[in-house]
Design goal:
Blueprint (H helix, E strand, L loop, with lengths): L1 H25 L2 H23 L20 H23 L8
Length: 102
């Protein structure tokens, strides 16, 4: 059904474009204004047809994996952050106005 609508709208735009060119060549201003109105209407319709979203298919939820055991890299990152925090605590206890300068 959606493909049919797209085809109809595209054919309508093509016919309106031909009428527009014909109206310009012949100097028929009333037809030109009507065709311009039709082109605008068809463009809005085309935008509506092409941007309609389909409803997502209902699927079963993805099972959550069990938490993996921490790797050596994870343990090192955690240890490093703990060491940095502890150093910061010791420095601020000794020098309350001290700040990290990078």
């Amino acid at each position: 059904m959606e493909k049919d609508k797209k085809g109809i709208v595209i054919k309508t735009l093509a016919i309106l474009a031909l009428l527009f060119v014909f109206a310009i060549l012949c100097g028929i201003w009333a037809l030109l204004l009507a065709v311009l109105f039709g082109i605008c209407f068809a463009a809005v319709w085309l935008h509506d047809v092409f941007t309609k979203r389909k409803e997502p298919e209902h699927t079963a939820p993805i099972p959550v994996k069990a938490a993996a055991l921490p790797t050596e890299r994870d343990v090192k990152k955690l240890a490093y952050s703990i060491i940095l925090r502890r150093i910061t605590e010791l420095v601020t206890a000794e020098y309350p106005d001290a700040r990290w300068v990078w």
